[in-house]
Amino acid sequence: MSNTLPQVSFVIPLYNEESNLPTLVDRLVQVIDSSELSLDVVLVDDGSSDKSREILQALALQDSRFHVILLSRNHGHQLALTAGLSVAQGTEGVFVLDGDLQDPPELLGAFYSKFKEGYEVVYAVREKRKEVFYKRWAYFLFYRILKKIANVDIPLDSGDFSFISRRVVDVLNQMPEESRFIRGMRTWIGFKQIGISYDRQERANGYSKYSFGKLVQLALNGIFNFSEFPIRFLTLLGSSAIISSVVYFIVVVIKKFFVNEVIEGFTALLFVIILFGGIQLAAIGILGEYILRIFFQSKNRPNFIIEKQIMNGKVK
Ligand code: UDP
Ligand code: MG
């Protein structure tokens, strides 16, 4: 087994998922054993502080179908996934899942058969989301806004859960972007892509590892990496401010000379000053989001650091 490459590799990022590991591994083993495909699994530990790291290492040493990557610290889901994709060996493609069993590994067959029909990317589309209402709404709105403003047609309600062909994985591995929004990059690459609907399960155990801050960061990465709309919007806002001020000025002058009425309005003046002070600061902030991304990218740091790697039952 260890010398022949698998057809498909599972790639699963994990951060403090100790409580989900036993079931996850059981279900993966069942899928591997019952499948006609040759499969293996890349489990990426994203700097967990629970017992995940020990459990994973023991697993990888005893079952060579499971490869384990331990990152040097918590890099975040997108970079952990990037690390997994960079080592996955599946010759036909990879199947990307979350480690909390929200994405059932048993769906591999359905995704794979779409791949066999000629689709390079088969992404999952969430029909129902079993999550708290404000999170559901936030996701709903975000994907719809992104669809409106992004310069690639990122499918609605699809996350990273997907089957990605070897060809597309190779392209992803060549994209050095530091601020990664993988579902967008995957769409950007192109080729034939198709969605499969599924009901997103509830997280099996534990709590979400995507903190509010991490989710906001992901959303901002989606917007600022795939849209120039915020900048264009500023130009539009600035231009309309100039136009309305000119119109206002003309009105004031006409009133002064023809009606002899001088417009007073200290409050209005104050309001306008504060309003435009605010708009200018926000505009600088928006520009800053783009500049920040240039700044971090220009450092050329590696996107992730692997502390230890156990592949094919051997420590690397
Ligand atoms: N995850 C990770 N690093 C992080 C946060 C999350 O590797 O910094 C993993 C996590 O263990 C899970 C997957 O990414 O396997 C999705 O995260 P989670 O289920 O917490 O997000 P949610 O489903 O709540 O959006
Ligand atoms: Mg989850």
Question: How is this structure best summarized?
Answer:
With about 325 residues, this protein is an alpha/beta fold. It has helices at about 20-35, 50-60, 75-85, 110-115, 135-150, 165-175, 180-190, 210-225, 230-260, 265-300, and strands at about 10-15, 40-45, 65-70, 95, 120-130, 160-165, 195-200, 305-310, 315.
Q: What do these coordinates show?
A:
There is one protein chain. With about 325 residues, this protein is of the alpha/beta class. It has two domains: about 10-225 and about 300-315, Spore Coat Polysaccharide Biosynthesis Protein SpsA, Chain A (Alpha-Beta Complex), CATH 3.90.550; about 230-300. It has helices spanning about 20-35, 50-60, 75-85, 110-115, 135-150, 165-175, 180-190, 210-225, 230-260, 265-300, and strands at about 10-15, 40-45, 65-70, 95, 120-130, 160-165, 195-200, 305-310, 315. The chain has a nine-stranded mixed beta sheet with strand order 7-5-6-4-1-2-3-8-9, with helices on both faces. β1 (about 10-15), α1 (about 20-35) and β2 form a beta-alpha-beta unit. The longest helix is centred in the C-terminal third of the chain and has 33 residues, at about 265-300. It binds uridine-5'-diphosphate and magnesium ion (MG). Uridine-5'-diphosphate (UDP) binds near residues 17, 77, 80, 100 and 208. Magnesium ion binds near residues 98 and 208.
